[in-house]
Design goal:
This protein has 306 residues and is mainly beta. The chain has one helix at 2-17, and strands at residues 41-46, 49-52, 55-60, 65-71, 76-82, 88-91, 101-106, 114-115, 127-135, 140-150, 156-171, 180-185, 188-189, 194-202, 205-213, 219-225, 231-234, 244-248, 255-268, 273-284, 294-304. The protein is built from 1 helix and 21 strands.
């Protein structure tokens, strides 16, 4: 069940990275960092090669460090997600839903993600990330990492000698375009800090993901078939990657799946804008600590995706 929590995080991270795929020493890498102490860098060894990212970005929210690195135009993506905001050592893959993790995927190759999780245990470390410096003045983060990545089919890749240096981080989240989102959660307005839209290919399936997220991690996420046409739809059940909805509460262990419906009002595939409405009962997902349903009502979105 741990894959269920991490794959939506992959959608969100790819949305943030894919806004602009410039080299790491470009203005993008330092756009929130007026006084960098040196060039940004992200690299790691695997499969007898050294991966060097062309773009690397990071966010530090109220509770989570996220580092996203990409090589090529949406080809190879690394995501490191740590539940903490301080310097120190983070073990990977220990725990259930709130799990420090590292993920590698090849978008254009359509490969399964390789995640720092042991599918048969929750108490065995699959690697470490050492945050050696968080420079709040220049807003950069540096560290090292290594991990064992396990694919959904059970195959394994060892990632070694990983490092990231002077990576500019954004303090909190910001919507990268004029996308809009609205929903009520149990009758109270969900006031997000950022809205992201991304087109993602995994296992030969292409989907559009819409994520509205607060800095504390609370998220409403929707995923649709990439070629979806205007019309009325119901959310698919557990196990699907398309036409699904998810709610993550302000605690990372509160994960819910949507039981309800949505309407696609328009889908402009040329300009990549999708507009719709939705409502669903958010039901505790398998393995979640959530115990009661949450009502998501009056949902609407108009999102540009990348």
């Amino acid at each position: 069940m741990k894959f269920l929590k991490i794959i939506p995080a992959l959608f969100l991270a790819l949305a943030f990275v894919s806004c602009d795929n410039e080299p790491v020493d470009s203005e993008l890498a330092n756009s929130n960092n007026p006084n960098p102490s040196g060039p940004s860098n992200f690299q790691v060894d695997f499969n007898n090669e050294t991966y060097v990212a062309t773009t690397v970005v990071a966010t530090i929210t109220d509770e989570v460090i996220n580092i996203s690195a990409i090589r090529g135009a949406q080809e190879e993506l690394f995501i490191i997600t740590l539940f903490g905001i301080s310097e120190g050592t983070y073990d990977l893959g220990i725990g259930n839903l709130q799990t420090n993790s590292a993920t590698y995927s090849s978008q254009n190759g359509g490969s399964n993600p390789y995640i720092s999780l042991d599918l048969n245990a929750t108490d065995t470390s699959q690697g470490q990330v050492i945050i050696s410096e968080i420079d709040s003045e220049s807003q950069t983060i540096s560290g090292t990492f290594h991990f064992t990545g396990t694919g959904i089919s059970g195959d394994v890749i060892e990632f070694t000698n990983g490092s990231f240096t002077n990576v500019a981080y954004q303090d909190g989240l910001e919507t990268p375009n004029e996308s809009t989102f609205f929903a009520n959660v149990n009758g109270n307005e969900f006031v997000e800090d950022a809205v992201f839209g991304t087109e993602l290919s995994l296992n030969g399936m292409t989907t559009i993901s819409v994520s509205a997220t607060k800095n504390n991690g609370e998220t409403i996420g929707l995923s649709f078939d990439a070629d979806i046409a205007p019309g009325n739809y119901t959310f698919d059940s557990f196990g699907s990657l398309s036409n699904v909805g998810q709610y993550i509460g302000d605690s990372a262990t509160d994960v819910y799946l949507a039981n309800g419906s949505f309407v696609i009002e328009s889908h402009d595939t040329t300009n990549k804008v999708i507009v719709g409405t939705f409502e669903f009962t958010a039901e505790p997902s398998p393995g979640s600590t959530a115990t009661s349903n949450v009502n998501i009502t009056e949902g609407s979105f108009s999102v540009t995706y990348y």
